[in-house]
Design goal:
Length: 565
């Protein structure tokens, strides 16, 4: 029987095309499996269906802010204790706080030892708990790894490739960065207006001022030694390289320039170096490591920051592709990227970022919609980044347990497309991405200004097989809700069509607060929808020339129905 930590128990064995060393490692694994009677076939549907649809849970280590996190039990309680019994198959745990390790590192000072002293109180708690765990020999990364394996899950070390929280959190900047400002993309120091461009021609924000410039060998070496260390010292199943935290790797990008072929070559050489060392260590221990990368939304956007994903996959350098920062959920080109990744045998895991907080409190319904849409597009599983709530700083235990239960409901049945059928879902039109992440995210269709006599068109993509579910009695109808800003009187001239059919009888929803937008809901039959792009058209009549509306959101709710006997 496969051990919980065996990558083969969750990922089909494949031989990368251009990696002779890796071929030897995998041959060794297959031989061990044969001699010990372990199964090596890819997981099948049924009992192992959960493993075929891997659910990755990324933890950002903020649990160390919890006052009780100085012990193993106190560390596990806020987030991880609730994961057994969910569809989560992999815990990918962040091992850096800013530029400093949040595990028992022997190659760089851990967080708190190399920082300034004027940290916020919650980060002082973080540093004190980290030190207490390390001093007790119960390092956070070891706790996570042991917990994952005990409960049949994988453990990955998540390495933030260029975290810049130290650009706006006082006292977060490491001593090394303070002493080596020549390796940063900017010498401006802490930034307060993080939404402003770094330079007039730049696509990025001042937020990235403390990012390290990977042009320098010493910068690449510092990141490499962290990856090498955790592979040597911890019983990990894999490593995740998180390029979304944060996606500025070169000074030229910060200053508004473009990526050069030389910079692309530097990053590809870095990935080759990481892959090669992981394979060496994996061969020595008799079990390979998996390498996952979290990248911008598509091949072109990734190449725009220096990451040649296609070359990495073609050379067999990566085992898993985690797609996107989770800022453009409903415009993420999953079908296109699944086709590109699967051509090289690489499974694809689209990223959901913090459902519940970024989804207007509709995290469960919108997560179901995304999963259904993404599975239909060829995704191999789902990656949850920052599936959290602020319970680290809540003293009322009953309150934070109730909060966690509500947030973790996003995980229910998320690994099984069949179980998601007929459940209530909320699909959305693609919306504008917050400026600091727009340059690595796929574009949206909203907001859009509705002008008299004009018309705005945009798609809402549905992953459900609507005609079949309606025939089976598992859909009870649908509702389209539009959020608008502007003159309420203009609603009299608002005309809306879905797939060419006019919607009538819109119901104006009462605002809950004075600052709430205008919201209007239309009921429509499920038969008006298709399992693909559904074209929404919205416009104003020409008889109100002085009135305008801006359409900011469009949400399509599928109402669950009772299945027919």
């Amino acid at each position: 029987m496969n051990s919980p930590a065996d990558p083969r128990s969750l990922v089909p064995v494949r031989i990368p095309r251009c990696a002779a060393v890796r071929a030897g490692v995998y041959a060794l694994v297959l031989l061990v499996g044969f001699l010990t009677g372990c199964a090596v076939e890819p997981p099948q549907e049924g009992e192992t269906g959960q493993r075929k649809r891997r659910i990755i849970f990324n933890g950002d280590s903020a649990v160390l802010m919890h006052p009780g996190a100085s012990t193993v039990e106190g560390f596990l309680t806020p987030r991880l204790e609730a994961l057994p019994g969910t569809p989560v198959t992999t815990i990918s745990w962040s091992i850096l706080a800013g530029d400093a390790p949040s595990y028992d590192s022997r190659v760089q000072p851990i967080y708190g030892d190399g920082q300034q002293l004027d940290r916020p109180d919650y980060m002082n708690t973080y540093a004190a708990n980290l030190k207490a765990l390390v001093d007790a020999g119960t390092c956070p990364l070891k706790i996570v790894t042991d917990f994952a394996h005990e409960h049949g899950m994988e453990a990955f070390a998540s390495v933030r490739m260029n975290d810049v929280h130290d650009s706006f959190v006082e006292g977060h900047l490491s001593r090394w960065k303070l002493d080596h400002r020549e390796f940063l993309v900017s010498t401006r120091g802490l930034q307060t207006a993080i939404a402003e461009p770094a330079f007039p021609s730049s696509r990025v924000a001042n937020l990235y001022a403390t990012a390290l410039d990977f042009t320098h060998q010493v910068v690449r070496d510092r990141k490499f030694e962290i990856i090498e260390e955790v592979c040597l010292r911890y019983d990990l199943d894999g490593v995740e390289l998180d390029f979304i935290r944060h996606p500025v790797l070169f000074k030229s990008i910060f200053e508004g320039g473009t990526i050069t072929p030389e910079q692309v070559s530097l990053m590809t050489a870095f990935i080759r170096r990481v892959r090669g060392r992981m394979d060496e260590i994996g061969k020595e221990r008799g079990r390979p490591f998996l390498l996952a990368v979290r990248t911008p939304d598509d091949l072109e956007l990734s190449l725009g920051i220096g990451l040649d994903l296609e070359a990495w996959m073609r050379e067999g350098l990566v085992d898993m592709l985690i797609l996107g920062g989770g800022y453009a959920h409903f415009s993420l080109p999953v079908a296109k990227m699944a086709e590109a990744a699967h051509a090289y045998g690489v499974p694809l895991y689209p990223c959901i970022n913090n459902p519940g907080q970024l989804m207007d409190g509709k995290g469960v319904e919108m997560t179901r919609a995304l999963a259904t849409k993404w599975y239909a597009g060829g995704a191999d599983g789902i990656y949850f980044w920052n599936l959290t709530a602020p319970w680290e700083q809540i003293r009322d235990e009953a309150r934070w347990r109730a909060l966690r239960k509500r947030v973790y409901a996003c995980l229910d049945d998320i690994d099984d497309p069949k179980a998601l059928e007929g459940t209530e879902k909320i699909y959305s039109a693609a919306e504008e991405v917050w400026f600091p992440y727009a340059f690595i995210s796929s574009g949206g269709h909203l907001p859009a200004r509705l002008e008299p006599g004009g018309q705005t068109r945009f798609p809402i993509v549905i992953g459900d097989d609507v005609p079949r579910l309606e025939e089976e009695g598992r859909l009870g109808g649908a509702e389209l809700t539009l959020e608008l800003e502007g003159a309420p009187q203009a609603l009299e001239q608002l005309a809306v069509r879905v797939n060419g059919s006019a919607l009538e009888g819109g119901r104006l929803l009462a605002p809950e607060a004075e600052t709430d937008p205008i919201r209007i809901t239309f009921a429509l039959p499920a038969s008006a929808l298709e399992q693909c792009e559904n074209l929404v058209e919205a416009g104003l009549g020409e008889s109100s020339p002085d009135r305008e509306l801006t359409l900011t959101k469009a949400r399509l709710r599928l109402v669950s129905g009772e299945p027919s006997p």
